[in-house]
Structure formats: C-alpha cells, structure tokens
Amino acid sequence: GRAGGAILVGGNTFALDDPRLTARTPSAQRQPQAAVLTTRLPSASGSTILRERPTDAVFFTSAAQAASPTAEALRGKGARVYEVKVQGVPGREGQSVRARLNAAQALEMLRAEEGCLYVLCEGGGKLALSLLEEGLVDELHLHLAPVILGDSTATPVFAGRSAESMADALRMRVTHTSLVDGDIHLHFRADRG
Fold this sequence. Notes:
Blueprint: E1 4-10, H1 11-17, E2 33-37, H2 48-52, E3 57-61, H3 63-66, H4 69-76, E4 80-83, E5 86-89, E6 98-101, H5 103-114, E7 116-121, H6 125-133, E8 139-144, E9 172-180, E10 183-190
Parallel strand pairs: 1-2, 1-7, 2-3, 3-4
Antiparallel strand pairs: 5-6, 8-10, 9-10
C-alpha cells in the first residue's frame, strides 16, 4: 500500500454527490485515497473518481458485493474492493435491529492494507453518526456559514439516531473556536468520560 491519508464517505454521498475527494491546496504533493463504505458498489465508470483516478479508489462492502461482477470490474480498473463484516445495531425499544457495515474494520484495513494513517470523514450523516457511535472519532471539525437556507428536506449532519433524552446524546467537548473567512470553525474532541 501507499503511505498517506484517505478521505472516507458513505455510499449515499458517493452516489448522490459524485465527490472528487481531493486536497484542493496547491501544496498537496499527493492526493488522498478515496475510500467508500457502501452496501452497494457503483459501476466501474459511474463517477468522477473512477474515471480520473481509479487507482486511488478503495471500497469497503459486504461479502456478497465484494464477490460480485461489479467488484471485479472495479478491480479491473485498479480500484481495491475489500469485504467487511455486516453488524447488527440495536434500535430503540420496539424498533428492529439496523444492519450496517463494520466501520472499525474498514478503518483498520485502510491502515493495514493501504497504509493510510490519517482518515478524514467527509459525509454523510449516517456514516458520521456510525463513526461517533462506535467511538472511532478523535476530532470533529464543524464549519458554520452565516447563511440560512431553511430547507426542510436538507440532509442532516448526523442521521440515524433516535435519542429519547439528553442523557442518550453523544457527548463532545469543544477545544477550539475560530473565525475562518467569515465562517465559524468549531473544533471538538470526543468526550470519552
């Protein structure tokens, strides 16, 4: 593998936004690997990353998807496809168990197989929440622009949790605040007790 970092997104973000997952600074000597945790693999030609830099693409998916013709087509373009376990996540009382891919295993494979020592998660809300719930987040950076859209259908920053009270909330601790080009930058660390 190549030493360096990766930008991680979930399958929905990858499919809906077609993100480039690149470092946009002139000083970037090497682009990060584009890592996707998804239960449904994309077609081998279906995204900007797979057209422009397929050898930087890394997919983590279920056993069935990892053994599919789609996976083989992705590997044929130079992308890597890894199988990760599917785990059950208990819902609230009266709700069915949710199934999701094991994010901790994906992160471990990024380090061990791809040499990625640093991972930036750039969406979406379900993946971000999964990482927080599993205790896999070291730092959280939140940028707030002084702009109000009021869109009732907007994608939430974190999605998929049904906390019934503040006692069920995931806790973070603010370590730094700053103003960056007119936006508020909040820097959090995990509050692990």
